[in-house]
Amino acid sequence: MDKTTKRHCTGEVGGGSGGEKGGGSSDGDFEPSMGRFTDHITIDVLEKMDLASLCTAACVSPTFNSAVAYRLPFVSSSDLSGFYLDEETLKHVVCRVPGAKSLTIECLRMRNDSSIINILGDHIKVLSLLKCTHLSYDILRAIGERCPNLRSLLIEFAGCDAPELFKRKLAEMLQKVPLLESLSITIRGTSRDVFDVRPLGQFLPPSLKKLKLQQTDARLFVLWLDAVRKIPLFNLRSLSLVLDFISDDLLITVVHSLPHLVELDLEDRPFTLSSVGDLTNIGLQALKFCECLIALSIVRSKMNCPASFTRVDNKGMFHVSEGCKRLESVKLGGFAKVTEAGYSSILYSCRNLKKFEVLTSPLLSDSVIDNMTGVARSVVELRLSSCSLLTSEALEHLSSFRKLEVLDTSGCERIGDQAPFYISKVTTLTRLNLAKARITDVGLALLGAGDLPIVQLCIRKCEKVTDKGIKSLFHADRKICKTLSVLDIGYIPKITDAAIFTIATAAKALTDLSLRFCNGVTDAAVQMLMDRPNHNSSQLQMLDLCSCRGLSAEAIMLPLPLYAFHRLRWLGIGLTDIVAKRGIFSAICEARPRLVLCGVCCDFGCCDGWQWHNVR
């Protein structure tokens, strides 16, 4: 590993002096120009940077190097999400920022509890532990003992089928964190570790304002909430649950027990299609008692079976619109009998709406956006996913959305080439998802002509797109060439090496690229991404090659050059011949020890499957 890369990964800032030129001083002109700025100005600039940016700045010049060395001990927040560090590197980084009150850590490479326990201390107030594949429930006890001043905890476990152990360790922790205000615990990959929260009522800190649990049993949660609402000072403001079933009883109990809720997020994942005891209009009517509610999300997932809310119709949405007029964020999914009339009533009533999302709504038609004229000036995010009746005409008046930054029509298979033309008029758009749309190369050309500052673009499963469309998207050095960071062109059969060459040449800010199930991509494209140390492609941090059947076992040639993939943090090679050749697989891991190599079919960063497998 070269010295610059090592400093980026570990936070080392002491190697830039002693005659060694910084990254920006190849001709010796950069460093003298830094002398024009006083130390006060330099440090003031660095105070506005996050940890990753500070480490990058330290490599620019000896002046920045020294200033960062001074600044690091005073960094109050350390966000290491997206950096898959091992125990030794993590300890080194944390030692460099001893004053950090907030820590966010990706735990995919942490092999045991001690990896985290050794960096805990009473200075930590906000702790987020993501993708804890190997951590046991005992880490909860350790957090309670070592972080008595903790205000916020987010932790994601890979379950170990030990619900009693979990309850005991959680209770031990809660008794020792009296200042806790926010608690978010997720358990994935187990059928038995659901939250039986009833025994925990006596240990809940009275300061708790935000609670997120995934996954819990709805019936047991109702019983628990009936008990804990009698605790003095118990006053949750934000509740997020993933449950087995959403019922009227659950919703009514929640709103009567927690009348001061500001945020309510409910998702269920039923295992049967039975509607007995299901949510009805009556349950939604109870929401009127939450007068402070500004964010509402109620979603039925199809993860376990193709279920939907069959006992809620437009009348239920009328109840929401009448009782929750202060809503600024709305997310509704799985309401099979609600039409645009129901959704429009919410749009008419909630005049401060900033986020509006509808999922899997088979009766939602194009006119819903026509009815959004009253809130068009305030909406920042608009997501209409898997709505089978939605067509391109729904987006005709999209230009009236003056603040729109996020648009998602993924799964709307009747969206065609006219849609990109309408979208191209929204000059504020930065994130766009057109997955499964019927757009062609013509549509991409129209989108490119709009010259939008798009940062994230997904055209996954747009099967009519070819290399020509990709070329037209990036034509003539448009804004997207400078702004695009994340691109997903997976599952497009006509994408070949030519498209990859275009992307790598034109997209100057690209960090994440998904080519999964693009069988036309061959070894030549991968070699091109590896062989250009000073090219745009050298900035890649995540690359998904899952099931690219055109790749041979030798697609990644060994030994790896020092510069090849030197910034890459995650590489997906599931269902390729590279995985089958264990020698190559192991050699890549050895050559890039900080690279997470995923040999199964996870999406970026193993965000959807980390609980099921070990990463290398």
Automatic annotation (TrEMBL):
Gene3D superfamilies: Ribonuclease Inhibitor
Start and end residues of each stretch annotated as Disordered: 1-30
Residues covered by the F-box domain: 39-69
Comp. bias (Gly residues): 12-26
Domain F-box/LRR-repeat protein 15-like leucin rich repeat: 79-607
A biological-process GO annotation: SCF-dependent proteasomal ubiquitin-dependent protein catabolic process
GO cellular component: SCF ubiquitin ligase complex
Taxonomy, superkingdom: Eukaryota
InterPro entries tied to this protein: F-box_dom, FBXL15_LRR, Leu-rich_rpt_Cys-con_subtyp, LRR_dom_sf
Protein name in the entry: F-box domain-containing protein
Source organism: Capsicum baccatum (Peruvian pepper)
